[in-house]
């Protein structure tokens, strides 16, 4: 029987044990475990990796702990602009949305773009119009409101800066992050999905790496499935997700070697902080990051669930 596997992340950055309360640590660990269990159950039923990553990311989007969907951060204008992408490793088909507002589950809208349009990436009002056409769920602004997120926005506005949610320079016991999932199904197919609310106090409709195929999200059965998290500008410049795949395809590196080179060497040299989750058709899982921590979890076959937060 072919292996099945799933890995997820909930953001990477300055996540220190000394600054985490027991209550917060338990909440994050439980949320990660529940999400990875949901995805693994889908795979156990023989359903596709594509469905597993979408449903898993939907659950993380519905959890206010993470900077995606309901838990998305505030923009400079006090809005919530969300990005998401999904990719099928079997067909190479992909869908993404950027800068969408009031969409309950941006990852499902990205899936609709892939399945019901001739496009890959839709943005802003156009993506929202498409969402209404295909019956996507929308929520009022107060659905996305969180007091901690609001305080973070006010602090960033006062300093006229943008903040990564996992930056310890602000309210260090409040860590949130981009979410993502990669999965391998019983048919031997891979898929990847990523969703984010971006940076606190971001201006000018800034878009990060998450919805950019090849930068923050990528899947190809011949190589790997990748979902990234971190400072998006660096991940876009380095084309991180595709770079890992290329090192495997063209250089003959193993998954572990490729991830290590890109995250620990290439990104570090450029000043890029963050990490990625990776998976291949052999069921090998790599959870690589160059920051103080990364919210992460994985499960393969009938093995125990792994949940990690710190380095």
From TrEMBL:
- Positions contributing to substrate binding: 206-209, 229-232
Q: What residues correspond to the site Cleavage?
A: 177-178
Which CDD domains does the entry link to?
Asparaginase_2
Keyword Translocase appears in the UniProt entry: no
Instruction: Please list the residues that make up the active site.
Output: 178 (nucleophile)
**Domain of life (superkingdom):** Bacteria
Please give the name of this protein.
Isoaspartyl peptidase
Q: Which organism is it from?
A: Adhaeribacter arboris
Organism lineage string: Bacteria, Pseudomonadati, Bacteroidota, Cytophagia, Cytophagales
């Amino acid at each position: 029987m072919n292996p099945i596997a799933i890995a997820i992340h909930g953001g990477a950055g300055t996540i220190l044990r000394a600054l985490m309360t027991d209550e917060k640590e338990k909440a994050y660990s439980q949320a990660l475990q529940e999400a990875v269990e949901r995805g693994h159950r889908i795979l156990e039923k023989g359903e596709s990796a594509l469905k597993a990553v979408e449903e898993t990311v939907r659950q993380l989007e519905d959890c206010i702990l993470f900077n995606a969907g309901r838990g998305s951060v505030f923009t400079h204008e006090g809005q919530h602009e969300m990005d998401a992408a999904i990719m099928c490793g079997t067909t190479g088909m992909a869908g993404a949305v950027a800068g969408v507002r009031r969409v309950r589950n941006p990852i499902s809208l990205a899936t609709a773009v892939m399945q019901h349009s001739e496009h890959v990436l839709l943005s802003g009002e156009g993506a929202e119009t498409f969402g209404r056409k295909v019956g996507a769920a929308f929520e009022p602004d107060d659905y996305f409101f969180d007091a901690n997120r609001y305080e973070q926005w006010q602090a960033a506005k006062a300093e006229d800066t943008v903040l990564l949610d996992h930056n310890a320079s602000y309210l260090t016991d409040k860590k949130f992050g981009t979410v993502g999932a990669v999965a391998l199904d019983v048919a031997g197919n891979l898929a990847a999905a990523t969703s984010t609310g971006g940076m606190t106090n971001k201006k000018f409709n800034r878009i990060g790496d998450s919805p950019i195929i090849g930068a923050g999200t990528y899947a190809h059965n011949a190589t790997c499935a990748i979902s990234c998290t971190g400072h998006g500008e660096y991940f876009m410049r380095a084309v991180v997700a595709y770079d890992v795949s290329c090192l495997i395809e063209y250089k003959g590196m193993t998954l572990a070697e490729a991830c290590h080179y890109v995250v620990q060497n290439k990104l570090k040299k450029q000043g890029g902080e963050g990490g990625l989750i990776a998976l291949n058709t052999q069921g090998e899982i790599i959870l690589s990051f160059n920051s103080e921590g990364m919210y992460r979890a994985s499960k393969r076959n009938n093995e125990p669930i792994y949940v990690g937060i710190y380095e």
